[in-house]
Amino acid sequence: DRWNHVKLVIAGKQMRVYVNDMNTPTLEVPHLEGNTTNGTLAFDGQVIISNLVVKPNVIEGLSLKPGIDPTDNDIRYLRKWQVSEPITTAQNVDFHNQYYPDSATKWQPITAERRGLINLTRKFGKADGRRIVWLKTTISSTKAQETMLNLGFSDEVWVFINERFLYVDKNLYGAPIMKQPDGRCSIENTSFRVPLGEGENELLIGVANNFCIVARLNELTDLMIEN
Question: What pTM was estimated for this model as a whole?
Answer without folding.
Answer: 0.86
